[in-house]
Design a protein that fits this description.
Layout: E1 5-8, E2 11-12, H1 19-23, E3 28-35, E4 38-40, H2 42-57, H3 63-71, E5 81-88, E6 104-111, E7 120-126, H4 140-151, E8 156-160, E9 166-169, E10 173-178, E11 181-185, H5 193-198, E12 204-207, E13 219-224, E14 228-235, E15 238-239, H6 245-255, E16 259-261
Pfam families: Aminotran_4
Protein name: Aminotransferase class IV family protein
GO molecular function: transaminase activity
Length: 262
């Protein structure tokens, strides 16, 4: 059975090396679901980390070295795990954040949960993450909104921009179903790996979706690498069919996606 592990650049991490991550909290990450030593969309995860490292640090990240670190976290028994690769510089601090960076890779792993999860009911809020195209470690704003929503009885939060256009959830992408068509919002958001893989689905489109248009859709769903496809039962007061066949088909499409050997 997989235990939890934490390694920095392929060796056990020392507590003092996490000080920058805890206090400065500047970096980026990706999360992979590994099953039987294989990952859906492995290339997309690696490309994300390399691209975001250039954006966040102005530095190059070696894909081969990165893959070597990730392989160390694969469960020996072939079980399912959620592996997170966080890229940060242990030497950077708030007062000298402009220094040349030497990014390091922190790999953590934990057992993965199941993919058949109950529907969620979410509340919308006007919020745009910093650099929405980057999966950054600075999650305070997003998690604060999630906390407020959960304290008010919702399961999670959905972000909209200043023109009420739907963008993304706190840690997931959102898609909608209209008839036989899958629609992804075009507002600025993280290009999630699961969303990118499912956009190859034969009936997918992308368009601006506002809160006022939600009742035009039959179903809605959340996606990320850890959960796959999860039905959304309602956004604010707009309810959706949680047993829509297209959402079920998308879930099957996700589980049937080819997985790359890590």
């Amino acid at each position: 059975m997989l235990g939890r592990m934490e390694e920095l650049n392929g060796r056990p991490v020392r507590s003092e090396e996490l000080r920058s991550l805890a206090l400065t909290n500047y970096g980026h990450f990706t999360t992979l679901r590994v099953e039987g030593g294989r990952v859906r969309g492995l290339r997309l995860h690696v490309e994300r980390l390399v691209r975001d490292c250039r954006v966040v640090f102005g530095a190059e990240l070696d894909p081969g070295r990165l893959l070597g670190y990730l392989r160390r976290a694969v469960p020996a028994d072939g079980g399912a795990a959620v592996i997170r690769a966080t890229v940060f510089d242990p030497a950077l601090d708030i007062g000298h954040i402009g220094c040349n960076a030497v990014p390091a890779v922190l790999v953590t792993a934990r057992p993965a949960g199941g993919l058949e999860l109950p529907p969620i009911r979410v509340r919308s809020v006007e919020f745009v993450r910093d650099l929405p195209e980057v999966k950054s470690v600075g999650l305070f704003g997003a998690l604060h909104e999630r906390r407020l929503a959960q304290r008010d009885g919702f399961d999670d939060v959905l972000f909209v921009d200043g023109r009420a256009a739907v963008s993304e959830g706190a840690t997931w992408n959102i898609g909608f179903v209209r008839g036989a068509e899958v629609v992804w919002p075009e507002a600025k958001s993280l290009p999630g790996t699961t969303m990118q893989l499912l956009r190859q689905f034969r009936r997918c489109g992308k368009e601006r979706v506002t809160l006022g248009q939600l009742d035009e859709f039959d179903a809605a769903f959340a996606t990320n690498a850890a959960i796959g496809v999860r039905p959304i039962s309602a956004v604010d007061g707009v309810e959706f069919a949680v047993d829509h066949p297209m959402v079920a088909e998308l879930g099957k499409a996700f589980t049937g996606l080819p997985r790359d050997l890590l």
